Amino acid sequence: LSMVLHNPHIFQAALVAATGFFVDPVMQQRCNVFMEYGTQDHLFGYETVALPNRDRLLAAGHNVDFRGIEEAGHALRPEFVVEALQFWL
Predict the structure, then answer these.
(1) How many degrees, rounded to 5, is the angle at CA 16 between CA 12 and CA 21?
(2) How far apart are the C-alpha atoms of 19 and 28, rounded to whole Å?
(3) Tens digits of per-residue pLDDT, 52-89?
(4) Backbone angles phi, psi at 56, to 5 degrees
(5) SS3 of 78, please?
(6) What is the pLDDT of residues 2-11, one digit of tens each?
(7) d(Cα 27, Cα 18) in Å, to the nearest integer?
């Protein structure tokens, strides 16, 4: 995620699942971000990490498609790839 936020002239979108953190970019250029978190993620808490990360991105003006997956943990769903690619393309 940080790589995309810092290089929007190279990347068209960030497609991320259960991102623990990101570094705010120096230049404020809008990015497209597809992000997914499981609501039962014990590594990166939904309330303590996922929602604050989403809110930081939205507050910075990024285009964010956020998906909170009920009863999912810290794992990638098979549908993630298809949904993320549809967002990007």
Answers:
(1) 110
(2) 20
(3) 999 999 999 999 999 999 999 999 899 999 999 999 99
(4) -60, -45
(5) helix
(6) 999 999 999 9
(7) 24
